[in-house]
Every structure is written in structure tokens, then in C-alpha cells.
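Standup notes
- DV: blocked on the single-chain target, sequence here:
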Amino acid sequence: MTLFGSFTSRILYVTPNLSKCSNIQFVFCSIILSLKLLLRSAKLALRDRINHYSFSNAKNLIPWLSAEGVLVLAETVPRHTQRLYELLQPAWLSSELLERLKTAEEAIYDDHSNPTINWDSSDLQQDLEKEGLTVKVEQERSQTSILITPTLLERWFGSTQKSEARLTYRRHLEKILTNEEVAVVGKAFTQHLCHQTVTWSSTIAYLKICMQPSNK
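- DV (later): unblocked, structure below
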């Protein structure tokens, strides 16, 4: 699940080059490198997309691959994450405000200055290929159920801004909506969705990364 810049990375499979290390060294290095990839979302101070994705971590895995080695990653694609306005029923807001809300929320993912949420799997593939790697990508839509709690609503609509580097949903909306409109939207979420379980959709990109072109 991604919520405005928070995304996950998982190593699904690595073909190791055991000549590079002992079994204990390989296990230890795999754990360390896996943790580096899993903690990438905390590196919000990085300015360019390659550093943000921590491609250097993926490159660190290359020496541990066999000559025909394969690294498979699973990435949640933030650009195609669930839109909050899609959780609302049309009757809960005026048609004009609902359209303005859609415009404001879509603008979050169209912000080219924010590399945490504006990328797609094709961007990831291109940047990895620039590093001299062969990359194949497949995407699939995933759904899960989440409970809309008061804590989650506070995270979305609370006035407290913990970091200027990661704006809350409310702060993003305030770029286009008035304070009064944001308050109406927040009230609709609280009245109709608080303590409700909803279906949350996301897109997962599976990347097969090789050191050289695969004949398979």
C-alpha cells in the first residue's frame, strides 16, 4: 500500500555467485542489502530519482550474482495507487466540489518535482537500463482491505505537518482547494468512512534484472 510517498520494495529472488563469498558471508550480505532496499522510503532527502530509488543498492547486489544471475524485485508503483476520492460516494459532496477534489488529488501524482510519487515502472526500467542492466517488467493490480481509523484520518487531514519534505494529503489539497472546502471533504470522510473497511487498490511492478541479455 502506498500513501503519498510511502512505498515498499521486496527482493523476491537472487541467483548468487557463491565463489564471491562463504555461505555465512552470503547470508549476512543478503540480509544487509535487503534491509537497505526495504528502508529506501526513509531516504526522502535524496534529490534525484536514481538515488531515491537506491539503485546503488541494486548495483551492490550485482557482484553477488552468477554470470547468468537474476535479481527479481517487487515495487509498489505510487503513481497508480488508490485515489482517496474514489472512496467517496457522489452524494456525499456537491458535484462541483467532487470535481475540484479529483483535480487536486490527481495533481499530487502529476507533480514532476516530486520523485517519490510521480514515477511509473517504465521510468524505473529506463533508469536501471542506463546502469547497463537488462530489465523486464510486469505489472499487476492488487487489492486489499483496510480499516479507516481515526488515526488514519488524522494522518490524511490533520493540521500537523511532521515534515516539509512529505506533505500530508490535506496540505496537498490546500494547493487547489480552499480551507473551507478541505474541511468539508474531511468531514465527509469522517462521517461516512470512519471505522469502515474499504477496498484499497495498488499496482505492483515485478522487475527481472539481469547482468546480460537473457535468451529465455
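- Follow-up: Confidence is low (pLDDT under 50) at residues 4-8, 18-54.
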